[in-house]
Design brief:
globular; 9 helices; 309 residues; single chain; alpha/beta; binds zinc ion
Amino acid sequence: MRVKIMGAAAGGGFPQWNCGCRNCSRLRLRSFQGTARSEVQAAVSSNGSDWFLLGASPDLKTQIDHFPALQAKSGPRNSPIQGVILTSAEIDQTLGILMLREFQPLTIYATKGVQQILRETNSMFQALHRVADQARWVNISAGQTWPLATLNGADSGIVCDAFRLPGDFPSWTPASTRAELTETDAVIGLTLSSSSGKTMKWMPGAPLDSPELIESLEHCDVLFLDGAFWDDDELIHAGVSGRTARIMGHTPISGPGGTLDLLAGLTRPRKIFIHVNNTNPILDEASEAHAQVRAAGWEVAYDGMEICL
Ligand SMILES: [Zn+2]
């Protein structure tokens, strides 16, 4: 299975259009040792020709422009993109599917709650249903395992397992809709299994809030984990928010009870931080924070990163 990281940043990307933090300012001035990153997006394929998207980032159109394997082949309208798996209803994870309209057939896997928010309270998503057989939505839920199928029904060679992650529906969900939703539908993580028997976990935006969740991370070969913030009070120090990482639903990387601390005993998987906020010092390859992360055996995902398993 090929795994392509098309975007590695948290919401807003790096640099963020309205951010003048130390990282964003130095990147614009070209005095930063590190690279720009677009909003989180991954694509996976078992055969190199049929691809599935994990989430649908607001930067998806540009990300496809930078990744030839996802581009249309010569001839009439076509796409190697077979489907999209949505892990929440957040704008950062869903806006990109509107870039995939243009009458193109597509399978969209999402929980019932995520579908309700997108399809019933946002009329814009009806653009995916202008012709018959355009978007086909498939209900998934935490605890479910299913094989990803191509648009013509063939086995893709990838099996997907959804599991519940802590988190809530987006803050902008109307109260009347929220009252009808099932809490376990809000945020899911994914375990993808390749035909080689190797597995990866995809958890780009959730806190490590239980011993069971932490223990489960040992059962994969590659782990993509939320690396939004280095410090719990990072946004407060940067002067951009009064909220801590933990209040926003993220486990900070550093400090007691931080990710490096909680996962110091993790031995099996290759460990990769993704969904990195633009204020996070690990983006600066000359920083002490970056050195600490690398010394602890972690990698920092970047746009264009590719792994095989
Ligand atoms: Zn910034």
